[in-house]
Fold:
Amino acid sequence: MTSVPLLHLLVVAPHSSAPWSSFATLLSYRFMVNALVAGTIVAILSAIVGWYMVLRRQTFAGHTLAVVGFPGAAGAALLGLSVTPGYLFACVAAALAIGAIPRTRTGAGRATESAIIGTIQAFALACGVLFINLYHGFLDGVTALLFGSFLGITSSQVITLGVITAACLLVLGTLGRPLLFASIDGDVASARGLPVRVLNIAFLVLLGLAVAEVSEITGSLLVFALLVMPAAAAQRLTNRAATGLALSVAIAVGVTWSGLIAAYYLAYPVGFYLTSAGFFVYLAAILIERKRGRAGRRDTR
Amino acid sequence: MRSIDEVVIEFRDACVQLGGHTIWSGLSLEIKRGEFAAILGPNGVGKSTLIKVALGMTGLHFGEVRVLGAAPGRHQGEIGYLPQRRSFDPSLHIRGFDIVRLGLDGARWGLPLPMRRNRAREQRRIDDVIELVGASDYADRSIGQLSGGEQQRLLIAQALVQRPEILFLDEPLDSLDLPNQGAISSLIHHVSTVEGVTVVMVAHDVNPILAYLDRVIYIGPGGAVSGTAHEVITTENLSRLFKTPIEVLTTSDGRLVVVGQPEAPAHHSDRHEHGAATMLHAEHPHHHGDGTSH
Ligand SMILES: Nc1ncnc2c1ncn2[C@@H]1O[C@H](COP(=O)(O)OP(=O)(O)O)[C@@H](O)[C@H]1O
Ligand SMILES: [Mg+2]
Structure:
């Protein structure tokens, strides 16, 4: 359970005045190394999946998967399991459910889709609340489930995250370009023989896995810190697909590291630091884009 | 194998039903290699459906279709397609160059790890085709930020980049202003000659492409007619098909002009009063511009 070591470790985490020696101390803590490795693994996957999600305008679906992860993790705790399988099962099941919603050729289909997704979301939160009430001793963990914790990440969790990320990256490498094609231009992609519907469902499953991973670090409610903010910032900074993906990864890893290190020194929840870092990067991206836009307009005149 | 008269698209007594309704039936047509063919007809009559059948995206209920000598959907790599009425969301931050590149490698699975030589060759091909459609100046801007005409040029480049044998264009002139309609029409004609592509284009107004047409397929509520432009585009034929007086005139420089073509055939009741009086756009030259010129 993530909630138990949280307090202990906060107490033992040293706060030395000399920054370098204290940074070396930081790396001497197993939990901190685990957190940094896990954070990096998660950041890489979420930055890439998030880049596609932002491009596909599926942030609402991403948010729903995150919310569904909450009862999944709470349910797993109730059953005496680790939260990892709880997140994974709930997020992937919800991804498949969203993928099963039939798409019609009219705009009405999209409205129905978002209504269904919204309904799933509300019901999931309700289930989460129920599970937490059923599991009385668990109330401390609620904050961790919703807003993140990183101190209890075990070495075996790191391995699980690494294996899932590696598998997802392999799939993304294979699907990458057809997925981009289908995301931008579904009609043309299917005329070229691409299985657009299969790609849509495959992407939702990848999104579910990424959300499940991010939830372990940021909690269910702050997944956008790694899933949306780096990708959205990258897309504002460059319109080149390959550069954008690389930039998204760089931002996500940077945000994760600064969030984790800040949380190590200043004992507030890691989700707060991660999200703030992501927020300021996104803000900076908007300002840079604006400035460029003005310069561009001046050039053409 | 590739004789001049080779038929590349053939429909025989074809019939499509969608949602329990017969969209069209008894449709027969032939389009030969290198031809510029137009599919004309009022809204909702099944023009886009015809293209989707040829692409293998919609099945026939009855009859037969052959595309490049095979069942539709067999030669996907040799066919370029521009679907109807698409404009990209202004917030889509993907540059035009990458949109065009998708036409070349978007259907390829696996990591993009080509040989260096291949990569350079593909790069050159993309640059060439962007140059051909006249989009070099803005190919590195985000597609969502471009005007309708600019997006259309890049989409034509995307459809052309893998050197297709046939180009299917579904109302590519739709939503363009008049100068752009003329420019895109002549561009399509130009690329079809330069690249030797067969063009099948759905059009609402025949005038911008009239000068280039080899073949016309007219689909009406009462059936379909297919033939060479000179066979189909006559005062008698069009008046009968559109059920409204339409005149085909010859201008002093020998070009055909269709006058009185109902613009929005959805308004059936209006047709009698206004149909004959509807003059073609060309007689009222607009100058909206495309937001980019000057
Ligand atoms: N998937 C579908 N299911 C049912 N009806 C359809 C479908 N696609 C198109 N239609 C109907 O078929 C008719 C022809 O459509 P379309 O080919 O788009 O016409 P056009 O391109 O000539 O305007 C329309 O009435 C349309 O509503
Ligand atoms: Mg149509």
Observations:
- DSSP finds eight helices and eleven strands in chain B.
